[in-house]
Design brief:
The chain is 29% helix and 11% strand. The protein is of the alpha+beta class and 272 residues long. Among the domains are: 37 residues, no CATH class; 113 residues, Roll (SH3 type barrels), CATH 2.30.30.30. The strands form 2 sheets. Strands 6-5-4-3-7 form a 5-stranded antiparallel β-sheet. A two-stranded antiparallel sheet has the order 1-2. It is elongated and about 115 Å long. It starts with a helix and ends in a 16-residue tail after the last helix. About 4% of the residues have low confidence.
Length: 272
């Protein structure tokens, strides 16, 4: 390496090959070392300069026709057959068809969320069939054994104790909160066609407006009285299969007993 030109040629090859610093110091010296440091130093980003500097504020040095040639627009136009290439404009944003109201209430009014879910019939577990004895796991009658009668339109299960044996009346239960046992009861003589979700619907009474005297009086708690029709329906259902329960030994005692876990019992090993 003797001249500056030879150093520059050598640097071009050096940029492509990784050289150990100790080896570089042996090969270069003096002017060659300075050129090597310049080549390896990070390049400083130069500020961009405009092609048409201002002579005074708002007045450029070159005219529009001069800048047309300096920017190379003539070449782009010639390349596309004498016409500038045009790009399709972006579609305009959709404007709402209804204008927003100028006035709105001070209090926010909650609007129900849009629900496009279509109701589907609830699948009944394969282990639950009419006459199956179920164990209720939650609620007022948890631990009680009941008899499954049918599945209602809402997907809930219609069950009964019977009421005469364990005090559980005709009621609806979610199948997620029951355990199906292998014990079955013959309910072929039971008629449950009249029982549906409307039968168990709660009657809503309209609240009366209170006067000045009644406003300060304490609310009286009214006891829920079971209609006589419900009592008659319960008796007729219980009487239809109470004989079939008494015909099986120990079945009446089994239904009357409450299920619970005791010490030493392993739930995962129980067979219901």
């Amino acid at each position: 390496l003797k001249s500056d030109e030879s150093v520059e040629k050598w640097l071009q090859g050096y940029r492509q090959v990784q050289v150990v610093e100790t080896g570089v110091e042996d090969l270069v010296s003096g002017r060659q070392r300075e050129l090597l440091q310049i080549a390896m130093a990070p390049k400083a980003r130069l500020p961009r300069k405009t092609r048409n500097p201002d002579l005074i504020r708002g007045v450029g040095k070159f005219s529009r026709s001069k800048m047309y040639h300096k920017r190379g627009l003539w070449a782009i136009k010639a390349k596309n057959g004498g016409v500038f290439p045009r790009h399709d404009p972006k579609p305009a944003a959709e404007t709402p068809t209804q204008k927003p109201p100028k006035f709105y209430p001070a209090d926010d009014v909650k609007k129900p969320l849009v629900n496009k879910r279509k109701p589907k019939p609830t699948n009944l577990r394969a282990s639950i069939t009419p006459g199956t004895v179920l164990i209720i796991l939650a609620g007022r009658f948890k631990g009680k054994r009941v008899i499954f009668l049918k599945q209602l339109t809402s997907g809930l299960l219609l069950v009964t104790g019977p009421f005469k044996i364990n005090g559980v009346p005709l009621r609806r239960v979610n199948q997620s909160y029951v355990i199906a046992t292998s014990t079955k009861v013959d309910i072929s003589g039971v008629n449950v066609e009249k029982f549906d979700d409307k039968y168990f619907a709660k009657e809503v009474e309209k609240k009366k407006k209170k006067g000045e005297g009644e406003f300060f009086e304490a609310d009286k708690e009214e006891k829920n009285v079971v209609p006589q029709g419900r009592k008659d329906d319960q008796k007729s259902v219980d009487a239809s299969f109470i004989k079939s329960i008494e015909a099986v030994p120990d079945l009446k005692t089994y239904l009357a007993a409450r299920f619970s876990l005791k010490s030493g019992m392993k739930p995962h090993e129980l067979v219901f």
